Amino acid sequence: MSIVKINVLTVPEEQRETLEKRFASRAGTVDSSDGFEWFELLRPVEGTDSYLVYTRWRAEEDFQNWMSGRGQAAHRDNAATGSERPKPAATDSTLWTFEVVQQAAPKQG
Fold first, then answer.
1. What is d(CA 87, CA 76) in angstroms, rounded to the nearest whole number?
2. What pLDDT score was predicted for residue 72?
3. In the prediction, which pLDDT does 81 show?
4. Span 78-88, mean pLDDT?
5. Which has the closest alpha carbon to 50: 79, 90, 105, 86?
6. E strand segments, the chain
7. pLDDT tens-digit profile of 27-70?
8. What is the pTM of this model?
9. Of 9, 20, 36, 79, which sits most exposed with the smallest number of CB within 10 A?
10. What is the model's pLDDT at position 35?
11. SS3 71
């Protein structure tokens, strides 16, 4: 079964819009990666300043391949363009890994 990676990003309220715009500007960069199954950026509603970046992969190897290729490229500075990497919007990050043990989807009627 699939694996899920959840990146927990601590984002101060004044940086939320910046974070969301950065993700929007990179929309589609992971979609065509081998083994990629799903992405969601989850905004906190109340009681926390943590965003969750949810990705689902066919296997750990697929995630690692993305991280060492396109994922790494998406996060490094823009040396080729001569511009500096912008200051991170998140003040902390933790990566959680889960195996999908059970799943359900709406019944097709």
1. 12
2. 61
3. 45
4. 62
5. 90
6. 3-10, 36-42, 50-57, 92-99
7. 888 999 999 999 999 999 999 999 999 999 999 999 999 999 86
8. 0.83
9. 79
10. 96
11. helix
Cβ neighbours of 39 (radius 10 Å): 15
- For the record, the structure tokens of 15 come out as 């940086």
Closest CA to 34 of 60, 8, 6: 60
Helix, strand, coil percentages (3-state) for the chain, rounded to 5, are: 30, 30, 40
Sheet holding 3-10, edge to edge: 36-42, 50-57, 3-10, 92-99
Residue 16 CA: distances (Å) to CA of 11, 34, 38, 51, 60: 6, 30, 22, 9, 29
The structure tokens listed for 52 are 């969750």
The DSSP code for 79 is: G
DSSP class per residue in 24-38 = HHTTTTTTTSTTEEE
Q: How far apart are CA 74 and CA 63, in angstroms?
A: 14
